Amino acid sequence: MKSEKLVLLSLLMALSFQNLYSDGLLQVTESKEFLRLSKSITEVRIIDQIALTTVTHEFVNTIDADSIQVAYMFPLPDNAAVTGFAIWRDSTFVDFVLTASDTGSSNQTVPSDAEPALREYLLPNPFTVATFVTADTFRVKLSYAELLPFDFGAIRYVFPLASQGFSAGDL
């Protein structure tokens, strides 16, 4: 039964490219440029109709400054809520304490001066965190739970992958 679900999930993922969102983005607050995503690792566990997704993103800092303010942005699927967020500091991930407005509700906003294409990628359910980059690489780990649609006896899982329009280089 598990192998049948895995085959069906793989087939559904392969056939669902028309519903792509954007991968995680890291934008410099002052200049509005994006830091290059150098690595993306995704772990997904599906239990019945719930998908538990954890993404780890690593960005390359090419800005010549000791510290830069950035905004990490990720477009959560419509039926998803953040369950964890951490930033790599001093060789370990440091967990953030999330409040109700941080978890992927309508209280999350896209920066008001964001480009229209960025707004389109992030809406309707954006997750944003403002922080500082102080090293050559910047790593984040985001976990979220999602209620998957159930249709005619099958569930459907789609992962956001279309960030190339916002990356400073090839992925």
Structure description:
The chain has two helices and ten strands. By secondary structure, the chain is mainly beta. The strands form three sheets. A five-stranded antiparallel β-sheet has the order 2-3-8-5-6, with no helix packed on it. Strands 1-4-7 form a three-stranded antiparallel β-sheet, with no helix packed on it. The radius of gyration is 16 Å and the shape is elongated. 25% of the residues are buried.
Quick tags:
171 residues, three-stranded antiparallel β-sheet, 2 helices, mainly beta, 12% helix, disordered C terminus, elongated, disordered N terminus, 10 strands, five-stranded antiparallel β-sheet
Short overview:
By secondary structure, the chain is mainly beta. It contains two helices and ten strands; from the N terminus they run H-E-E-E-E-E-E-H-E-E-E-E. The protein has a five-stranded antiparallel β-sheet, with no helix packed on it. It has a three-stranded antiparallel β-sheet with strand order 1-4-7, with no helix packed on it. A two-stranded antiparallel ribbon has the order 9-10.
